[in-house]
Amino acid sequence: MDWIFVAFIVFSTIAILGSLMVVLQKTPVSSAFSLVLVFFSFSGLYALLGAHFIAALQILVYTGAIMVLFVFVIMLLGQDQPTSDLKDSSLLFKGITLLGAIGLLNVLLQAALSSKDIVGKGVYTEEKINEMGGNLKSISEVLFKDYVFHFELVSFLILGAIVATVALAKRKNSLSGGVS
Amino acid sequence: MNDPWLMLIVSCTVFVIGLIGVIFRKNLLVVLMSIELMLNAVNLSFVAFSKIHHVLDGQINALFVMTVAAAESAVGLGLVIAMFRTLKTADSDQIQMLRD
Amino acid sequence: MSILLIVLFPLIGFLINGIRYIISTKKGTKISSQQSGMIATFAMVLSFLVSVYYYFQFNGQSNEVKLIDQNLFSWIKIGAFHLDFALRLDPLSLLFSLIITGVGSLIHLYSIGYMKEDASPAKYFSYLNLFCFMMLNLVLGSSMPHVFLGWEGVGLASYLLIGYWNLDVEKVMAGQKAFVMNRIGDLGFLIAMFVAYKYVGSLDLIEIQKSTMSPFVVTVFTGLVFFACTGKSAQIPLFTWLPDAMAGPTPVSALIHAATMVTSGVYLLNRISPLLIQAPQVLSVIAIVGVTTAFIAAIIACAQKDIKKILAYSTISQLGFMFLACGVGAFDAGVFHVMTHAFFKALMFLGAGSVIHALHEEQNIFKMGGLSKKLPITTITFVVGWAAILGIPPFSGFFSKDEIIIESLNSPYGNQVLFAMALLTALLTAFYMTRLLVLVFFSPSRMDKDVEEHVHESPLVMTFPLIVLAVLSLIGGFWHHSEGAHENSQMIMITSVAVAILSAGFSFYRYRKFDSEEQTNNFIENGLGINNFYNNFFGKGVTIVSKGLFRWIEAGIIQNGLKFCTWAVEFSGNVLKSFQVGSVQVYLMMMVLLGLSLMIWVLQGVMHGVLIYGK
What we know:
A: mainly alpha, about 75% helix, B: mainly alpha, Helix Hairpins, about 0% strand
């Protein structure tokens, strides 16, 4: 049992438990902090897979930006009280949903297991990546060569998101000069 | 990591947990968090497949998903704030206008 | 020259007068009856001239040449089945076209005088032309659907003209009665058409004639056609409409209900005569029905008081004679009688119209009398018609009627009973026709004083057709060459003429000095109660069945079925509504379940290697 496998076990256990906590925690704040835990462990898993760039981005974008945003909104809305919304829905509804979810999990796991024997056909083996100068270099190679157009398109998406957020956050009758 | 398919198991599990969260929880903030969970699970599977197939496209896709997730959470949270402003609540139960 | 012209002229006349009528009703202007009548008559005369042209074309030719087909357009095309809209002229249809256009022209001419005071002459003449157009389609049609088109078309025109004075409810009802009775017969025609389609595969009349069907199918087919003919030609059991049809204007009765439309049954039987020969049972049924109709109608005619009703029953009786001729296999004699009957019966109807016209719509023969001095032309022509129907030589009726009587005994299908009935009918015919003639023209006058003063002979436009028809009734019999006289035929001829003259003499003696109203038997006068029987049995039966159907089927099954339908829709709507809860979470749940099932389905496909992804 090498240390990589041990690390995998630890990270994946934290990820699964953390995500369960996200769903089951009563107060949104606890959920948010469980989510941070999950993000961190996912970052570890990425690193284990050799995707160092993604691992770094995971911490920067998710933990650093998105989670801050979440916590900020929770603060803003005063959602720090425990809610009982989990218990509100009917047993039948929960049963059917859980059944569906388990079925889905079953199907997905079967699909995952079927990919066990796949032999990779791509050129970017570990040796090749090392030869090229590491993960970051090889990714930039692909990103700014093959995916440069998509990369530019994403900027439009972000621009759109900014405009949408501003429009949403604006007070309703600020245009007509009224105060609400 | 010699067995990247093990990652897929983690990914599926987290995805389904996130889905359950989306369906069960009524607090829109938690729903959004669960959506983040699901997006992360997909990201993980992207990266794992990238490793399995010896290609880098999976990782780049994960990158794009992250961007989309950031945009999504920004807009989503904006929506929650807008809704909270009009309905004074962040419960999805209260949005029943679709029915009538 | 094309045979299409025969059909086309009446159609053009119909369209011109019809459009004139529509325009006049829109504008509220009045149309002169002379103008409309001239247009209609001109169209008929042109059509007649074309027919005459073809008569000379055919004259002296061998029988094989006497057939002209004219394909107008492809009518019906379904799969392998193909039907052309085609006209066909052969000696039989030529004879009928000559009768229709010739007698038709005269009656159109007569109508100009008769309908002078009418409010909407353009409508009347357009209907009359429509009738002729349809009747010509009937006789010139090459296929059964084409004949059926004409068959229904003349029914329509007959309906429109019987109820022409549509302000009188009784007349409208008479039109409806004629239409409905004809529909019953049409059912036979339609089913016969289905049978022909099924077993011959073609609806062309010549193909049907030439086809080889099993004896049973032939019997069914001819029986159905015969049933159709009983409707149109007013035979038992569907004859009750014809006396009521006399509600229409008298020229209409002369044209449609004496000379042409009612003989279309005889035409049709002649068309399928090669098949009828193969079905002796049907032939004997036709003969029995024909002679019974002739006999019963003659009895009823003896007790009628209305001049037109007498002529109507006489028409039924003569049609019975024609059917008898067809039934004993003497098709030529039947057609010959159609021709002579068209002449003398049209003549008598027009004469009756002249009398009615002179007496200001008086139709009761017991309120007439002594008209011979005041209406000399009408009287003379009517006497010619009377002599013709009695069968006194050398008038036309003598040749045709006696040929039928002879054939009813001598033909292989004839027998003594038919012969005796025919002779008896001839006797009755002589009796009631003489009664009519004497009471109207020769007995002492029984008219009201103020009516009597205004009696006057009809104008030339009405008497001219009478004279022409009288001449035709006189000489019409010589056109037919009776071949192979039997040794007993002379005896029969003498007998029948003697019977007719004796009966006429008795009738003349009885009614010579009649000056009051005759007490007739109510039962006989009302058509032997057959009308009442139909009303009580079929009318009420249908009413009872309809009420039952309404209560059980309509109210019970259909309405409850509809209620169930609405309930089912409401219920399923409610069920579906329960899915529409408005909660995002439930929608999501459903989405997950659907996605899951789709996923399973797709993966199943992948596993079996049948779906898009392949193996």
